[in-house]
Amino acid sequence: MAEAHQAVGFRPSLTSDVAEADLSASALQEIYLSGLRSWKRHLSRFWNDFLTGVFPASPLSWLFLFSAIQLAWFLQLDPSLGLTEKIKELLPDWGGQHHRLRGVLAAALFASCLWGALIFTLHVALRLLLSYHGWLLEPHGAMSSPTKTWLALVRIFSGRHPMLFSYQRSLPRQPVPSVQDTVRKYLESVRPVLSDEDFDWTAGLAQEFLRLQASLLQWYLQLKSWWASNYDFLYVTPTPVQAARAGNAVHALLLYRHRLNRQEILPTLLMGMRPLCSAQYEKIFNTTRVPGAQKDHLRHLRDSRHVAVFHRGRFFRVGTHSPSGLLSPRALEQQFQRILDDPSPACPHEEHLAALTAAPRDLWAQARRSLKSRAGEALEAVEGAAFFVSLDSEPAGLTREDPAASLDAYAHALLAGRGHDRWYDKSFTLIVFSNGKLGLSVEHSWADCPVSGHMWEFTLATECFQLGYSVDGHCKGHPEPSLPRPQRLHWDLPDKVHLSIALALRAAKTLSGDTDCHVFPFSHFGKSFIRRCHLSSDSFIQTALQLAHFRDRGRFCLTYESAMTRLFLEGRTETVRSCTREACNFVRAMEDREKTDSQCLSLFRLAVDKHQALLKAAMSGQGVDRHLFALHIVSQLLHLQAPFLDQVHSEQWQLATSQIPVQQTHLFDVHNYPDYVSSGGGFGPVDDHGYGVSYIFMGDDTVTFHISSKKSSTKTDSHRLGQHIEDALLDVASLFQEGQRLKRGCRGRGEEDAGNRRGSLPGH
């Protein structure tokens, strides 16, 4: 907004001198205000950085320490043991009349040094405490005496009123596991999916790797470790007015950014005590993934005062601030409505330009260089935006006429779109459909799902329950007719880019058309039932997924489940290899009509316990895949041949899974507002003949699943797997006495014998 005013201010005038003076004064005022805002931001960040740097102490603690030293001097005591006098001697001699001032300065310097040493000691102590992970390995619901003592000490050293980045200096670094342990765990994980011959061959490669290359690659990793540091409400649409929904959502997102800049977002604490790393929050906004010939890089701006908007093949720049601050939701609605009402057509090739961001990265990198030279201003407006907004011309969301198909189409629209209506390189794209439904498409390299999910939970709660809408569906407040219209971006596209756009569009449409999405809410039971079974809800679902996938494909496969490693500084994720020997034993028992419920239940509990152990090991830095991947990268840098690592790196994950956490339950009262439940989010399959499965627990009695696969695959079918998941959950629940009421006439579909657990295998 300020930049637009400055452009008006510097426009040459051909009228009177008075008019020129008025325009210049306006421009100077905008320059002054923009500079003032910049200094305010810098001062705010400096103060926030200072507060997080001294946490868990506070600035007032320095004043208390200094006052205590002065009181001791008054009582003729010297707590510094002579150090204050030595400091005083080193200060310049300003004469006798300033003798008392030298004493005060010396005491202040001593207090500052002592205060800094105490803060450093607190940081070290807190880091040592946070390095303890014994609590993760304890049985569910039990707590040992060491863990109780640890919790008490963490509570003492953690301070009060932490800011978002307060714990960053105290988080431990992720350890490098023993390479022997990693290889052993890897072999254990692949044993259920390999034949005896293949396993012996893989084990031979592993032993050769341990004998020849492992120690050298591990040494490099040790050296580095010492040195280096999409969804909406399911049943509710708060307003059918597209521009109003966009106005409230954009305003809420920028309110979140404001709180983020001021570090007013509380850090995430496990058990209400153990902090997680907050580093990923830094790049939520003002971030773009820039393509490169060899590798991409993330470009992050400290601030951005506009969003880039796409509608019917046209790009716009919409300012989000005025000289008085953030635009109101009603003003933003007005700007989006102006775009919706703009009848101008898209220019040739402009409509499909964004398909380049879905193209192979080397093709996009080459085309981007041409765009930067010929359409640099428009490109900067998009890449420098706070985020990207797509005003979709079609409706989406759950419909009463065909709820299943409408949910699937909704998920597909958010995940893939039409291939040219998202700027996939932006940190996230806000998608607002013509009927008021909305959602997010998130670029994954800058952060993991819980971080963007935390932002989106705040956004949905704020735009619905705090900002709200008037009776006629518009944002509350009044329009601002004096606001300049949104700026239409113009692209001077070189001829050689036209071919790149056509190639990118064809590939993007093919990929979008090949994506099969299926979403279904499972409402027979949820977290409350699993809790009454005294089991981990995630492990319950993961083990049931193994049963469902086996019924779907008739065999076991490597299974990926993401686990966070944010217990460590700058931690991201680790892999839980959920297809374990214990899970396979349980699945085989469920498909064996000779096995009793009691036997199946015992094997199920063993499988759940094994999954819990793997999950806790991954969270505590003792996983398999990140270590093996790091060893592989080092081998590539050293040009060292390691057939075992090449074999690991080439593995196919035919079942990729992830749970979407609900982190701010206080924002949504599911009991009083049962319609305000989320449909969760999803991702695509990582293998051409595999599945991507994500799930979210909403309230106590619903689990929503997102399933994706390739339509071109003859081996997968998202709807078929969805039915197997529902059957598997009910079959597992029926093993428990409390779940007998959920039991169908048979476990597994397509069998008339109620005692037969074998499910049908469509397509096999």
Automatic annotation (TrEMBL):
Its EC number is 2.3.1.21. It is found in: Mitochondrion outer membrane. It catalyses: (R)-carnitine + hexadecanoyl-CoA = O-hexadecanoyl-(R)-carnitine + CoA. Residues 1-47 form the Carnitine O-palmitoyltransferase N-terminal domain. SUPFAM superfamilies: CoA-dependent acyltransferases. Its main location: mitochondrion. Residues 743-764 are annotated as: Disordered. GO terms for cellular component: mitochondrial outer membrane. GO terms for biological process: carnitine metabolic process; fatty acid beta-oxidation; long-chain fatty acid transport. It comes from the Eukaryota. This is carnitine O-palmitoyltransferase. It comes from Myotis myotis (Greater mouse-eared bat).
